[in-house]
Automatic annotation (TrEMBL):
Bias (Low complexity): 375-386
Keyword presence, 4Fe-4S: no
Renumbered residue ranges of the record's region Disordered: 354-386
InterPro entries: ECM_Regulatory_Proteins, FN3_dom, FN3_sf, Ig-like_fold
UniProt source species: Clavelina lepadiformis (Light-bulb sea squirt)
This protein's UniProt keywords: Membrane, Repeat, Transmembrane, Transmembrane helix
Residues covered by the Fibronectin type-III domain: 87-184, 185-274, 276-372, 373-461, 467-565, 656-761, 850-941, 943-1035, 1036-1126, 1127-1228
UniProt keyword Transferase present: no
Name the record gives this protein: Fibronectin type-III domain-containing protein
Length: 1297
């Protein structure tokens, strides 16, 4: 401040602000002899210096003071000024993106002046880019972060922040912060040039922006690893040391000092395949026109898409001569080259290809094809039985030939190789064999395709002695036919045919020739039948074999004689005027030739049953079976030689016998209303009868004829069906022989039986039903009248369990009856028809009458319906209650019940109810009778509403609710019953309000709380909720260690109570209020935490509570924790007053540390600067009367530099040390000459020199002499100082007042 100075005037300046109300006095130009003198002296200007604070408003008053009368002054001037805000510090940039970042900073005011009265109202952030643009944003208040979102991607920015009051009052700029916005996403890389086997060149578009730190990172990913190349400053690069034939996925990412941009889309490129090893050439399916090429894949990856195969025809052995090249794209490691010229030399090479291009060609390989196919050989001369001679045409490119042969096929079982000529003889063959011979040309490429087979045969050998036989017995040609048999000649099977020759032995000069082919219908034939011979003659026979090579030698002769002739036309008939049941007559025609006699045979089913020899031409056969079928044959006999038997004669039967003792009876089983059994006997056995003709004659009506076929040899009965019920019948029987193979024969008709009646038929379709109008009390019967003859219908019925037996007779033609019954009973009805003296089978039907239905009434409650009814008539087994609306259900009730209460219903709900009485009917099913469906409504609920748990502790639950809905209240509510459970903490209270607190509960326990409405005369409805009490307080909370800013706290586990929840952690809180705080401690085994950032030298009340899902439990009792003191402030080292020797003393002055007043004393430590190991210390008692403390360190060494520090102490321990100050004592020590009392002298305390080793500090030899003499004087001086200081301090206080 500057002002105009008045003459001989002192000035007083008062500077006042809200938190400090500071006063400053300014002296005149020359120092006055008043108490207002201070140093340094000021003229007409002054500076507040460190006494004012930044960013605060001040009221400034300037007074002129009369030097002779200081109390006389006038107010000269008044100013209202404000100091500038401090520049923000610690400016940082975070959350950097492509187009925004976040700037944060801290305020620079010291914490002790942070009183909330700053003048700054906002902050201004300036950010300037490296492309010349600059922007400024202002915060809406004193928030210390700002989002900057109008920046350019990939750009460098310089940021500063100022504290701002208005456009005139603002702070200096903060320190500079720099950043760069993150680059944007780059484009996918492209392939800038052709790839090689180990490198790929890439390029991409640059990202927008001009950050000076911009680089690019290229990353690539093959199948087995990932790599990258960083720090690329251009937009092109080449990636080296890659694997051939491998596909790579590339991405590009822009990077600068601000961070890494978004990675580009990927691009896939491949390296060119490496050189393929020389291919391996080998023979293929066709040696003459095909080469099998195989190769190994090139070194490197698997990204080969196909291979380029090249081959060419060499005009000579030089594979490098000019050729024509053929290209094929293939995708495997093997290929067969087809369509080549036989006997030629070819060169081959191969190269791999993929999407990147074609790799280097392999070394060349060469191969020569085999010769072409030969023409078939030809036969050069006649064959023998063991050899064949052949010749052939030359083949181009052949160096030798191979001949192969095999009997009957071209499989080349035998070989003759390395033939240099164009002909050869194949010997060592089998006679009589057909051979197929092939020819193959051979060179260095292998053997060419064999020629088509040429067929040649060896000559056959002679046939062995043939045999001759007559045909089989059933051929019918033994008298005119012979069969010749022979074996094939030795050797092969190459016989074309055989020559068979025969002639009469009596005519040797006459020969007949017959050729027989050996293969007929695919079967070898070594026999032949010769026909049209003369019966009984002798013949000579011989055989020869032939094939394409010639005819073999003749066999030896064989001999044969034919059989005699056979009789014909045998006839079988019944004799005239004789017993035709046991006799038949046989006759025949005489054959040609000489005959001695005949053998006659009779057959039954081809089995001979009669044989007789006679010279006549007929025979009468006797003792035959009645009704049997017979046939006959005849054989001629001449000189003991039997000819062939004649064909069998015609078929003829004997007649069957007549049945006897016919009777007619009712069957023992079956339907006696429609069936009668006929019985009879037969006079003789055995006999052949397969059918009986049975005739029944009714009392009235037409006869009934039945043909009965029987497999039984002796049938004695037959059951006749479909007769008229109640009718009288008689019967006769006639036997019939079989008719298969011959006409049937019939016996005479038997005598007539006695009469027999069928039983009458029962009624049909009997149905018993309940009357539609009275099903409980009336049953009805319906039936159909039976067929046949009858008189009356008799009906009997009885009921159970409590009905009488009843009966009724109705006319034969009636079909309906109605009877009265008792409800709920089972009834059995029996119906019988009478015809003459016979009764029909009874027809029975059982049914039950329906149970009578109950009549029901009901009384309604909120959750109940009380039903009642009367017992119905008759018999019932129980009741079934059916609810047709609401929650559908069925309820079974016992037979003796007359009431039922339905519970757990919904309030104010309609229920439609039907009550059934029921019995078990005859089918085992339940049969019901229903009451009239009736709808009843339950009363509305009067339970309390909106039940809510408002709070819980470890021992209490507070709950509130609202009264019931107005329309549900039945009468005046007298209160509410509040009850709670479980059993180990249950109870109840009657309250007259809509809220209450339940006490005396167990901690950490689940309780169900129920609240019900109460009236004067009854209890209303209730509702309920669930609540969990909190954990009990932790026990034994103690503080274990403290520092100036921390307190260690430990505790033990609280009581788990009911175990409803587990402890999730702990909530630790502390006070006093101006530095209170809390923290949550996770659940662990240590049960310990450290409270940090506390104020030094303060007392704190510490509380601990357990946490669970029920909330924070009750806190523990307060535990006192004390932080250690902070560092003593404003420490000064000065020369002591003149009463002390400046060579041996130091005056120490300090202010108490920040924080509370809980300081016991101070520890003053000092040591010579040249040896820190000798530390002396002393304790100074703390005084709460004054902020400034002083003491004098005595008995020091002159002209020595000492270091001094001070520590405050309280019950928590020793606090932080002050700053270490240095002070050098003066030269030679002097004796005290006078005493002067100074301000705050009561705080001066004498000290003794003590080191950590219990030794006196090192001093000079001269000073040590003085120390011994001054020891006693020092004790006296210390005591005097204490007394003087106390008195001086008291007078000073009185003066200031």
């Amino acid at each position: 401040m500057v002002w105009d100075e008045a003459d001989n005037t002192n000035y007083k300046i008062e500077v006042k602000d809200a938190p400090h109300d500071a006063h400053y006095r300014v002296p005149p130009t020359s120092p006055p002899a008043t108490d207002y003198v201070s140093t340094p002296y000021y003229t007409n200007s002054t500076t507040a210096g460190n006494s004012v604070q930044p960013d605060l408003g001040y009221d400034i008053y300037l007074f002129a003071i009369n030097p002779s009368n200081p109390s006389d002054y006038n107010k000269a001037s008044y100013l209202k000024l404000a100091t500038m805000p401090p520049a923000p510090s610690n400016v940082q940039v975070s959350d950097i993106k492509t187009n925004q970042f976040v700037v944060s900073w801290t305020h620079s005011n010291p914490s002790e002046y942070n009183c909330g009265c700053h003048l700054a109202v906002a902050y201004q952030v300036t950010y300037t880019s490296n492309i010349g643009t600059s922007f400024m944003k202002q915060t809406p208040g004193l928030q210390q972060t700002l989002i900057v979102d109008d920046v350019t991607t990939n750009t460098d920015y310089v940021i500063t922040v100022v504290s701002w009051k208005n456009d005139v009052i603002f702070s200096d700029n903060s320190s500079v912060a720099t950043t760069a916005t993150i680059p944007s996403k780059t484009t996918a890389p492209t392939n800038s040039s052709s790839a090689t086997t180990t490198s790929i060149s890439l390029q991409w578009d640059p990202v927008p922006g001009r950050s000076t730190s911009l680089t690019y990172t290229v990353a690539w990913l093959p199948a087995d690893s990932a790599e990258s190349k960083t720090g690329i400053t251009d937009t092109t690069t080449t990636i080296y040391e890659l694997t051939p034939s491998t596909e790579y996925v590339f991405t590009v990412t822009a990077v600068n000092d601000g961070g890494t941009g978004v990675t580009s889309d990927s691009a896939t490129y491949s390296t060119v395949p490496d050189m393929v090893p020389a291919p391996i050439l080998s023979s293929s399916t066709n040696l003459s026109t095909m080469i099998d090429v195989s190769w190994n894949k090139p070194a490197g990856g698997d990204d080969v898409t196909d291979y380029l195969l090249e081959w060419w025809l060499s005009n000579s052995e030089d594979v490098n001569s000019d050729t024509e090249i053929h290209l094929h794209e293939i995708d495997s490691y093997n290929y067969v080259i087809d369509g080549l010229t036989p006997g030629k030399r070819y060169g081959v090479k191969i190269s791999a290809r993929n999407s990147a291009g074609t790799g280097q060609s392999s070394p060349e390989s060469s191969y020569t094809t085999a010769p072409g196919k030969s023409n078939p050989p030809t036969n050069t001369s006649s064959s023998t039985t063991t050899s064949i001679s052949i010749a052939w045409d030359p083949v181009d490119g052949a160096t030798s030939y191979t001949v192969a042969w095999s009997p009957h096929s071209d499989d080349g079982s035998f070989h003759k190789a390395n033939i240099r000529d164009l002909d050869t003889t194949v010997d060592g063959l089998t006679p009589n064999t057909l051979y197929v011979i092939t020819l193959s040309a051979v060179n260095s490429g292998g053997s060419g395709a064999p020629s088509n087979g040429a067929t040649f045969s060896t000559v056959p050998q002679y046939v062995g002695l043939p045999s001759v036989s007559a045909p089989s017995e059933d051929s019918g040609s033994r008298s005119t036919t012979m069969t010749v048999h022979w074996s094939k000649p030795n050797g092969g099977d190459d016989v074309i045919d055989y020559v068979v020759e025969w002639w009469l032995s009596s005519e040797n000069n006459s020969t007949s020739t017959y050729h027989v082919e050996p293969h007929l219908s695919g079967v070898e034939q070594y026999n032949s039948s010769i026909e049209s011979l003369t019966p009984g003659e002798r013949y000579d026979v011989r055989v020869r074999a032939r094939n394409s090579a010639g005819t073999g030698e003749t066999s030896s002769n064989a001999y044969h004689r034919t059989d005699p002739a056979t009789p014909f036309h045998p006839i079988l008939t019944q004799p005239v005027d004789d017993d035709i049941t046991t006799r038949l007559l046989i006759s025949w025609s005489v054959p040609e030739g000489k005959l001695d006699s005949y053998e006659v045979n009779l057959y039954v089913q081809d089995v001979p049953v009669f044989t007789h020899t006679t010279s006549y031409k007929s025979v009468l056969a006797d003792s035959l079976i009645p009704g049997e079928m017979y046939r006959a044959s005849v054989t001629a006999i001449s000189e003991g030689l039997f000819g062939a038997a004649s064909d069998k004669s015609n078929v003829q039967r004997t007649d069957p016998p007549t049945p006897m003792k016919v009777s007619l009876i009712q069957p023992s089983s079956g339907d006696i209303t429609k069936q009668l059994e006929v019985k009879w006997g037969m006079p003789v056995t055995p006999f052949q009868v397969t059918k009986y003709i049975i005739t029944l004659k009714p009392f009235s009506g037409m006869d009934i004829t039945i043909q009965y076929s029987s497999d039984d040899a002796t049938p004695i009965s037959y059951l006749v069906d479909n007769l008229v019920p109640g009718e009288s019948y008689s019967a006769t029987v006639q036997a019939v022989s079989p008719s298969d193979g011959a006409p049937a024969t019939f016996s005479e008709t038997s005598a007539t039986s006695f009469n027999q009646r069928t039983a009458p038929a029962p009624v049909t379709n009997l149905a018993v039903s309940q009357n539609m109008n009275k099903p409980e009390y009336q049953l009805e019967l319906n039936w159909l009248s039976p067929a046949g003859v009858g008189n009356v219908v008799m009906i009997q019925y009885h009921g159970t369990p409590n009905a009488m037996n009843e009966s009724a007779n109705v006319n034969f033609f009636d079909t309906f009856l109605s009877v009265s019954v008792i409800p709920g009973n089972n009834y059995t009805f029996t119906v019988i028809v009478q015809s003459g003296e016979m009764l029909s089978e009874p027809v029975m039907e059982t049914i039950n009458s329906k149970p009578a239905w109950p009549k029901m009434a009901a009384e309604s409650e909120i959750y109940e319906l009380a039903l009642n009814w009367d017992l119905p008539d008759g018999n019932i087994e129980g009741y079934l209650l059916e609810i047709l609306s609401g929650n559908f259900m069925n309820i079974e009730l016992p037979v003796n019940s007359t009431s039922y209460t339905m519970t757990k219903l919904s309030p104010e709900t309609n229920y439609t109810i039907v009550l059934y009485s029921w019995i078990t009917n005859i089918s085992g099913d339940i049969e019901k009778s229903a009451s009239i469906p009736t709808t009843y409504q339950t009363l509305p609920s009067d339970k309390p509403t909106s039940i809510m748990v408002t709070s819980t502790t470890s021992a209490t639950i507070s709950v509130s609710w609202s009264p019931p809905a107005p329309g549900s209240i039945r009468s005046a509510i007298v209160g509410y019953l509040v009850s709670w459970s479980p059993s180990h903490g249950c109870g109840s209270n009657m309250v007259d309000s809509t809220s209450t607190q339940i006490t005396g509960l167990m901690p950490n326990t689940v309780y169900k709380v129920t609240i019900s409405t109460r009236y004067e005369d009854k209890a209303g409805d209730f509702d309920e909720t669930t609540a969990i009490t909190c954990f009990a307080p932790p026990t034994t909370v103690t503080t274990t260690d403290s520092s100036a800013s921390t307190i260690d706290v430990s505790w033990t586990t609280p009581d788990v109570g009911g175990g409803a929840t587990k402890c999730d952690g702990y909530f630790v809180s502390w006070s006093p209020a101006h530095n209170a705080g809390y923290k949550e401690v996770a659940m662990n085994s240590t049960l310990y935490t450290k409270i940090a950032e506390l104020q030094s030298n303060m007392r704190y009340n510490i509380l601990v509570s357990a946490q669970s899902r029920a909330g924070n439990g009750m806190p523990s009792s307060p535990t006192l924790g004390i932080t250690a003191p902070g560092s003593p402030r404003k420490v000064k080292l000065n020369k002591a007053d003149e009463v002390y020797d400046p060579a041996s003393t130091i005056q120490v002055e300090w202010n108490k540390p920040d924080g509370g007043d809980d300081i016991d004393n101070y520890l003053v430590e000092w040591w010579p600067s040249f040896n820190q190991s000798f530390v002396s210390f002393a304790s100074v008692i703390h005084s709460n009367d004054d902020n400034v403390h002083k003491c004098i360190i005595i008995d020091l060494t002159g002209e020595t530099t000492y270091k001094v520090q001070i520590k405050a102490q309280n019950s928590a321990g020793t606090g932080l040390p002050s700053v270490i100050l240095s002070y050098k004592t003066e030269g030679n020590a002097t004796f005290i000459t006078k005493s002067r009392i100074s301000r705050s002298a009561s705080q001066f305390v004498p000290f003794e020199d003590k080191s950590q080793h219990g030794e006196i500090l090192n001093a000079s030899s001269e000073q040590q002499k003085h120390l011994i003499g001054f020891a006693v004087i020092g004790v006296v001086i210390c005591a005097a100082i204490v007394i003087i200081f106390v008195g001086s301090h008291y007078r000073q206080q009185q003066k200031e007042k």
